């Protein structure tokens, strides 16, 4: 992996990192203040979150803007390109483990904590003295625990919207790959069409997901407070939906950059990074569809 | 191409910028950012240390003497979080920042701007964490592990959770940067098998960080929603389980323990060969042992939870898996001893810290073996025996290695030699008092004194008083350390040679002392005789 470079590249000083630290701090400080406010208390939390979030947006524009300018000026050599690639790869690797924490929790609840509450294994006494009527099955019949927190609910049927969303994401993976091949072949028109299609598919997914949430809240009584079933359902699909939203925005930005002619058939790391991210989000969804909706 | 890519370097070719803001807030220089990390870590070491002094003052005598129980719980919580996320981890990142590019012949870290962001998130994270101490309702007081349901009672949980998120973002970015630097920025000829053990240890540690910090983020996020959004992850009434938190947390927490010790292994593997004037014994075995320990660290998390009531099969699996770690760790200890065997030893301050590390870390390792035994652990669990165990591995392990590293590389950083006399005074005071502080805690724990309780049975009074006296004196000894550093950086007249230590090998000793603002602007020619390991001899 050692590259034979005749010269190294070290970027200029930049004020964006310290700006990023400040706006990140403002966002979470506002969020903490908002969460901790007494009911009815008019805190400054939401204002600070808004300032912080706008700051984060501005920071991304500014920071990535300067990186794009430097890249277009031809200042980055192959070694810098490899550093960027490694950065993105390991970032996605860390995301795998982030979702892993929630998938692990899902498996633990289904394999251990519900059966133990229902009296299997060493949970027999807890069951007998606290929850002797509880059968501990997953899904609508017991997924919200022995106290049936949140009341009776139904689960989302996987073969409607979720299946459609699966097909949408799978299709979007294909379209983004076609766009990548087109980019390597130098067909900018085709890139714009297929990348644009990918953005539309991503946006459709998010819209459908929002619709599914609304229906789950209104018709199925499946909420974030519906015991551990609702907690896991919304935590997993919510973080995934958040990632799809981010991914769609990134794809849209890349679409604009293609339009501006930022990428060449040889150098288009920005495109590839977002495509990797998109495939990652796709794989997470397949696991979600299987373990949250179907099984 | 070449002229275009050098342009950025030439703008600041002649050294550090004059402007304070430009130099320290907007830096892309691995040495400056490393210095920031080290200063931050030293500051946090004293902040966390003062929490510890208050804890030991309260425990000086039985009875509630000084602080209220809730304040005591805040102190133990803040002491743990500060020392782990504020002192030990940033110190290793600072050392990595300073030394990895110098050791592999790189001009800087792979992603210098992200490097600056990784650092600057940290002070803000700790402002967020400490601000809770001033809030109505007080700070987090459920221990650094933040087990529910106890931690959910704390009013300021959101602040602690977001502070941990920030620290996590900082760690993951730092780790990504270190991996990219090591894999992508090595000078031609610096093969993986020629890298110093310190660089290897950081490569493996960075992998651990990227894998487990996001899991911690997931765990504390579930705490957050359980408290503020009515979810039931850890509520049995809704089908959850508080033990689930412990599993997720320790899946992070045990690799985290090795994150705090593997770079220390690397440091010791640099110091001992230098002062034994021999190459390290079994280079490949040392690297493989680190990799083995890292791999096993993913399979042993539940040994922190033996008393929680797991199925017996799980207890047995985690017991054996834990004891397996003694094998690679034993390899390392024996190889350090074998490196010293027959060497021309001298005992400068870094070497003293390294030898103390080998002996005292092994004591911590042995008490760890005792804790790994399920039936014995039922007795030791949550007693001062556990406290003694992990302070032996973290204070006389990680912190001693960091101090040794500071003495070892300070001549390279500052260009001056520190005062050997005062360094040795610092070492001997630390060595004696740290044992007065922690060794009696083994006896307290075996006799049944529980940890994290501000009051105790009068039967424990004697050893607690001894331990507290040791604690105050150990704390005071660290002021000597501060004095030695300030003297070395600002007042020392004794210039350091490029190769500050006679037996030192490696690329970092081929550059001037102090290391110029930019080093290795063009890739150096790596000559095997300059390296500690040429890769062919073992």
Write structural notes for this entry.
The complex is a heterodimer of chains A (295) and B (538). Chain A is mainly α and 295 residues long. Chain A is globular, with a radius of gyration of 23 Å. In chain A, 72% of the residues lie in helices and 0% in strands. The two termini of chain A are 43 Å apart. Chain B is an all-alpha fold. Chain B has a single domain, classed as Up-down Bundle (Cytochrome C Oxidase, Chain A). Residues 1-12 of chain B have low confidence and may be disordered. Classes of the chains: A mainly alpha (295), B mainly alpha (538). At the A-B interface, helix 1, helix 3 and helix 7 of A face helix 1, helix 5, helix 6, helix 7 and helix 8 of B.
Could you say which structural class the secondary elements and strand pairing of chain A correspond to? mainly alpha
Q: The CATH topology of the largest domain in chain A, please?
A: Four Helix Bundle (Hemerythrin (Met), subunit A)
* CATH-defined architecture of chain B: Up-down Bundle
Low-confidence stretches of chain A: 1-5
Strand content of chain B: under 5%
**Spatial extent as radius of gyration of chain B:** 23 Å
Order of helix and strand elements from N to C terminus of chain B: HHHHHHHHHHHHHHHHH
Specify the CATH homologous superfamily of the largest domain in chain A: Cytochrome c oxidase, subunit III, four-helix bundle
β-strand percent of chain A reads under 5%
Shape of chain A: globular
Content-based structural category of chain B: mainly alpha
- Rg estimate of chain A, integer Å: 23 Å
Question: Helix fraction of chain A?
Answer: over 70%
> Biggest sheet of chain B, in brief?
none
Number of helices of chain B: 17
As for the CATH topology of chain B, it is: Cytochrome C Oxidase, Chain A
Number of domains of chain B: 1
| pLDDT < 50 stretches of chain B | 1-12
Number of domains of chain A: 2
């Amino acid at each position: 992996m050692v590259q034979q470079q005749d010269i190294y590249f070290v970027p200029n000083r930049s004020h964006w990192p310290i700006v990023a630290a400040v706006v990140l701090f403002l966002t979470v400080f506002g969020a903490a203040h908002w969460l901790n406010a007494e009911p009815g208390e008019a805190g400054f939390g939401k204002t600070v979150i808004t300032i912080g979030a706008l700051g984060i947006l501005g920071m991304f524009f500014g920071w990535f803007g300067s990186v794009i300018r430097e890249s277009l000026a031809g200042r980055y050599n192959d070694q810098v390109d490899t550093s960027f690639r490694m950065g993105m790869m390991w970032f996605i690797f860390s995301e795998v483990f982030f979702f892993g924490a929630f998938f692990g929790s899902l498996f633990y609840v289904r394999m251990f904590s519900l059966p133990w509450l229902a009296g299997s294994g060493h949970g027999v006494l807890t069951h007998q003295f606290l929850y002797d009527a509880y059968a501990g099955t997953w899904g609508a019949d017991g997924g919200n625990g022995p106290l049936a927190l949140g009341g009776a609910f139904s689960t989302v049927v996987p073969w409607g919207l979720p299946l459609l969303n699966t097909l949408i994401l799978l299709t979007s993976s294909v379209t983004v790959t076609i766009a990548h091949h087109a980019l390597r072949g130098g067909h900018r028109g085709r890139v714009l069409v297929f990348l644009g299609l990918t953005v539309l598919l991503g946006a459709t997914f998010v819209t459908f997901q929002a619709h599914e949430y609304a229906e789950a809240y209104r018709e199925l009584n499946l909420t974030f407070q519906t015991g551990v079933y609702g907690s896991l359902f919304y935590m997993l699909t919510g973080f995934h939906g958040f990632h799809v939203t981010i991914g769609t925005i990134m794809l849209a930005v890349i679409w604009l950059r293609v339009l501006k002619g930022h990428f060449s058939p040889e150098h288009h790391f920005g495109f590839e990074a977002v495509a990797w991210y998109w495939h990652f989000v796709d794989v997470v969804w397949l696991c979600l569809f299987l373990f949250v909706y179907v099984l | 191409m070449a002229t275009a890519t050098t342009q950025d370097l030439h703008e600041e070719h002649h050294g550090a910028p004059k402007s304070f803001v430009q130099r320290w807030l907007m830096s892309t220089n691995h040495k400056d950012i490393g210095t920031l990390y080290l200063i931050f870590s030293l500051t946090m070491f004293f902040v966390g240390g003062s929490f510890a002094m208050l804890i030991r003052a309260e425990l000086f005598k039985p009875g509630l003497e000084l602080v209220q129980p809730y304040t005591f719980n805040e102190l133990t919580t803040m002491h743990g979080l500060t020392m782990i996320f504020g002192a030990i981890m940033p110190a290793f990142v600072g050392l990595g920042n300073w030394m990895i590019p110098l050791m592999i012949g790189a001009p800087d870290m792979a992603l210098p701007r992200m490097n600056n962001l990784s650092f600057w998130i940290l002070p803000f994270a700790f402002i967020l964490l400490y601000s809770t101490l001033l809030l109505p309702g007080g700070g987090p007081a459920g221990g650094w592990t933040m087990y529910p349901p106890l931690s959910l009672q704390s009013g300021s949980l959101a602040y602690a959770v977001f502070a941990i998120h920030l620290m996590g973002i900082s760690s993951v970015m730092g780790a990504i940067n270190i991996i990219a630097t090591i894999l992508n920025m090595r000078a031609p000829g610096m093969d993986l098998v020629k890298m110093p053990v310190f660089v290897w240890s950081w490569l493996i540690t960075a992998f651990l960080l990227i894998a487990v910090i996001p899991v911690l983020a997931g765990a504390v996020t579930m705490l957050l929603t359980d408290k503020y959004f009515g979810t039931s992850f850890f509520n049995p009434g809704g089908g959850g389980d508080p033990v689930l938190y412990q599993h997720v947390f320790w899946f992070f927490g045990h690799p985290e323990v090795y994150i705090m010790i593997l770079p220390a292994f690397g440091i010791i593997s640099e110091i001992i060969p230098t002062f034994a004037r021999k190459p390290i014994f079994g280079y490949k075995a040392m690297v493989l042992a680190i990799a083995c320990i890292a791999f096993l660290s993913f399979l042993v998390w539940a040994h922190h939870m033996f008393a929680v009531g797991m199925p017996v099969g799980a207890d047995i699996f985690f017991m054996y898996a834990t004891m397996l770690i003694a094998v690679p760790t034993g390899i390392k200890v024996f190889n350090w001893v074998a490196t010293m065997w027959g060497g021309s030893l001298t005992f400068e301050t870094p070497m003293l810290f390294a030898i103390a590390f080998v002996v005292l870390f092994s004591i911590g390792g042995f008490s760890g073996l005792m804790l790994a035994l399920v039936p014995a652990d039922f007795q030791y669990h949550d007693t001062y025996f556990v406290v003694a165990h992990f302070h032996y591995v973290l204070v006389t392990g990680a912190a001693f290695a960091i101090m040794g590293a500071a003495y070892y590389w300070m001549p390279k950083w500052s260009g001056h030699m520190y005062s050997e006399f005062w360094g040795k005074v610092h070492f001997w005071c630390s060595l004696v008092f740290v044992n007065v502080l922690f060794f009696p805690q083994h006896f307290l724990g075996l006799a049944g004194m529980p940890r994290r309780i501000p009051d105790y049975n009068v039967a424990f009074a004697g050893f607690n008083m001894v331990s507290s006296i040791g604690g105050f004196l150990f704390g005071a000894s660290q002021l000597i350390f501060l004095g030695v550093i300030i003297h070395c950086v600002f007042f020392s007249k004794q210039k350091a040679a490029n190769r500050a230590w006679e037996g030192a090998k490696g690329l970092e000793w081929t550059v001037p002392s102090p290391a110029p603002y930019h080093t290795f602007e063009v890739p150096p020619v790596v000559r095997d005789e300059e390296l500690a390991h040429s890769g062919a001899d073992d």
